[in-house]
Amino acid sequence: MTWPLLFLLFSFFAFSHAQLTLDYYAKTCPQFDSIVRDISQQKQTEFPATAAATLRVFFHDCAVDGCDASILIKPTAFNKSELDYDINHSLAGDAFDLITRIKTAVELACPGVVSCADILATATRNLIVITGGPHYKVQLGRKDSLVSNVSNVEAHLTRANATVDLMINKFQSMGFDVKDMVVLIGGGHTIGFVHCKEFAHRIFPTPDPTMNPILVERLRKMCANYTSNNDMSAFLDVISPGNFDNVLFKNLMKGIGVLGSDQLLYSDPRTKPFVELYANNAIAFANDFAQAMEKVSVYQVKIGQQGEVRKRCDSINHN
User: Fold this and answer.
1) Residue 60 appears among annotated catalytic residues
2) Residues of the chain with CATH 1.10.420.10
3) β partners of residue 143
4) Tell me: the pLDDT tens digits for 15-36?
5) Would the annotation count 201 as a binding residue?
6) Confidence of residue 319 (pLDDT cuts 50, 70, 90)
7) Which residues have a Cβ under 8 Å from the Cβ of 191 and sit 6 or more positions away?
8) Which CATH architecture has domain 8-157+299-306?
9) Residue 104 annotated as binding?
10) 66: annotated binding-site residue?
11) What is the mean pLDDT of residues 176-189?
12) The one catalytic residue among 17, 60, 89, 318
């Protein structure tokens, strides 16, 4: 790739981000902030797993072709969408219900103005704050993707048994360094949950020797019937699952990480220093997570004619 082409690409991304503003809806939908805030708070109160579910949907959306709400598009008889990919089968319905509630309210207040991508990005930030996490700025003005293809997912998402090398490579391909990776994984998992099938190999039949024996027994009891019940799951932070805090990193230092890929972060020399930093410094974790999320939320955003404002978040307009 030539330097002129690189310059044009970087100029394009800079231009794209410049089109996003904090007050994008100030005149066209002044109720936007209050609608998202109030419905997010209500949904989280009713269903405490909403924050974790929404944060996971947000990450899965942004990782695949950018933060464009492509993850929200339902598959049809003519198109297998990102939701058809097996990793995305476990995305929780609470998140999709939240986005639908907000979209319905926003369309009543200011029809055809607010994108689903902006709703998802803002609701995610609000839920992080509600559960105790840091506030960060969310630039607005994203357009919604015109496509959602299952074939786009494989190259971008990692599985629960991923190696550190693979995780680093995936994040670096998106422009994120090792520190970004560790803080985003920790932040995503501090209030997260995972289905038993994703870590069953660590507890059945022979437990992973790196796991705390007490944790193994707890998870074995919790997941005893996971093969007949695909919905069985466990919190990733077994100490303070409902609070957005730095306890997950403390857990990894004690060998009580549920996912093997999480626990590896404490054994690899490239990632261990950041685990130790965030375990011992909650302020550093909060600050670095906020900065990383600002960076994630503008990843490959669509603007102008690159996308649209969907009438329904689960389908593109021409359908």
Assistant:
1) yes
2) 175-295
3) 302
4) 445 589 999 999 999 999 999 9
5) no
6) low
7) 51, 52, 55, 131, 237, 241, 242, 243, 244
8) Orthogonal Bundle (1.10)
9) no
10) yes
11) 98
12) 60
